[in-house]
Design a protein that fits this description.
Rhopdopsin 7-helix transmembrane proteins; 12 helices; single chain; mainly alpha
Length: 259
């Protein structure tokens, strides 16, 4: 029976990097959980969950690198890949929700173009996100049975295309929000409240960097999972995005949002 070192095959090399990211995300998980307890909002809940998922995923990654037996465990690899795929749902939806919530507080007239109206449909956005997640999970599990399966590759590509399109939509909504907030004359308290649109712009750019890299390597799994590219173009943009959410006043309290 052939023994496959899945950790090596998928480019898992640096246990130190995985441990560092796990510790960083553990801190942020506690931070957002604390913020949620003090001011319950959907954004803080999703971010705390996202960080918890990333802690688990990076711990699995580190274990697979350090332990030869674990590195040969296909179920651990599938679990790790699924966690990384599912986690992005929370990060993108948190950014999307925050843009729409801040738009509700803006005194400037809302955009009336068709793209903005469709993009602002939260139910539709959630459905498309769940479809993207489902396709991604199906692609990962299918490829585990047959790495050369064309259907598995098609499922993964479809999932990535959906996430890329939704990331572009979120970036467009952020651009519209910037224009609206620049028209507002009300001075808000807190750095995040005053400069929230520009912080969200940075978040959108980081998410686009992540998705652009994955789209560029959609047919080259070896390059996609190469840690020399994966950490600076996937893992780092994600953790920088999480850091930006810590800006005081960025997330409006639920009590300030209109019913």
């Amino acid at each position: 029976m052939t023994i496959i070192d899945y950790a090596e095959a998928y480019g898992y090399n640096s246990s130190a990097a995985a441990i560092i990211f796990a510790i960083v995300y553990l801190f942020f998980c506690g931070f957002f959980a604390w913020r949620f307890i003090g001011a319950p909002t959907y954004v803080y809940a999703v971010l705390a969950l996202f960080c918890a998922i990333r802690v688990t995923a990076f711990i699995i990654r580190a274990i697979m690198i350090k332990s030869a037996a674990s590195g040969e465990n296909l179920n651990l690899l599938i679990g790790d890949q699924v966690l990384f795929a599912v986690g992005f749902f929370g990060l993108l939806y948190a950014a999307y929700t925050l843009v729409l919530d801040r738009g509700l507080l803006s005194k400037a007239p809302p955009a009336e173009d068709r793209l903005h109206q469709l993009g602002s449909n939260r139910r539709l956005f959630r459905i498309l996100l769940m479809v993207g997640v489902a396709l991604g999970i199906a692609g990962i599990t299918s490829s585990s049975d047959n790495s050369s399966s064309s259907s598995a590759s098609a499922l993964r590509k479809a999932s990535l295309i959906i996430f890329l399109a939704l990331t572009v939509v979120q970036a467009y909504l952020t651009f519209v929000l910037i224009r609206r907030e620049l028209q507002d004359t009300v001075q808000l308290a807190g750095f995040g409240a005053r400069h929230g649109a520009f912080i969200l712009c940075a978040i959108s750019l980081l998410l686009l960097v992540r998705e652009a890299f994955l789209a560029a390597t959609i047919s080259n799994l070896k390059k996609e999972t190469d840690e020399h590219f994966w950490y600076p173009l996937v893992a780092l943009p994600e953790v920088l995005t999480v850091m930006l959410y810590c800006a005081p006043g960025l997330v409006p309290p639920r009590s300030e949002l209109p019913n």
